[in-house]
Amino acid sequence: MWTKEKVSATIDHAVLKPSFTDNDVIKGCELGRKYKVASVCVRPSDVALAKKQLHGSGVKTSVVVGFPHGANRSETKALEAKLAIEDGAEELDMVLNIGKLLSGDYEYVKNDIKAVVKEAKKFGVLVKVIFEIYYLTNQQIQDATKLSIEAGADFVKTSTGFAEGSATIEAVDIMIKTAAGRIKVKPSGGIRNFEDAVRFLELGADRLGVGSTEKVLGDSVANDNENY
């Protein structure tokens, strides 16, 4: 049975809107501590602040890399990862190069992921690879999952929340079946109620990317920060 506490423990609470202030980041971390989520996911410039706010809580600090379009050079993503880890990031959510994947340049995509994984593995930091499934065919979702496995990533993830559309049962099912236990799966974007969260978890997802954590957990109908 999925209790509120069990679902909360799978949530990466997103604090990623471009307009968010330091105070918004602090409030996001307070919410993360309150509900004992898996992590609070912040923008690169907010890692040090979030790490300070989450100290001693057991909640991890996660950060986005190459967000939201994935088009940064691989060297830039690797440096962004390195600096975020130095600031205290314990998990990295990187956007793969969507344009290169759509161009069929799979070697580039794999090496792009590897560049971030290489930096992360030096410190035992997890890497989640964001696909942006809205732009992809089912075959490309399957291919991206395989590339992420080959590159040594720890998770595959559906969406940034900045494109049209969001996580779907169909896409997550493809990712889980393709992963076959070799990599974990994180639906993200558009999860706005408890039923949606449980549906993905029962399908076999390991984490959930959520911006409206209070709403999903049933504690608020007014809070809706979903953009992730």
Outline, from the CA principal axes? globular
Task: List how many beta strands DSSP finds.
Answer: 8
Q: How much helix, percentage-wise, in residues?
A: 40-55%
The biggest sheet, with number of strands, parallel, antiparallel or mixed sense and barrel status, is:
8 strands, parallel
Label the structural class.
Answer: alpha/beta
Description:
The protein is an alpha/beta fold. It has a single domain (4-216), classed as TIM Barrel (Alpha-Beta Barrel), CATH 3.20.20. It is 44% helix and 15% strand. It has 10 helices and 8 strands. Strands 7-6-5-4-3-2-1-8 form an 8-stranded parallel β-sheet. Helix 7 (138-150) links the parallel strand 5 (126-130) and strand 6. Helix 6 (106-121) crosses helix 7 (138-150) and helix 7 (138-150) runs parallel beside helix 8 (169-179). It is globular, with a radius of gyration of 16 Å. The chain starts with a helix and ends in a 12-residue tail after the last helix.
How are the secondary structure elements laid out?
Elements: H1 4-8, E1 11-15, H2 22-35, E2 39-42, H3 47-54, E3 60-65, H4 74-87, E4 91-95, H5 98-102, H6 106-121, E5 126-130, H7 138-150, E6 155-157, H8 169-179, E7 184-186, H9 194-203, E8 208-210, H10 213-216
Parallel strand pairs: 1-2, 1-8, 2-3, 3-4, 4-5, 5-6, 6-7
Helix pairs in contact: 2-3, 4-6, 6-7, 7-8
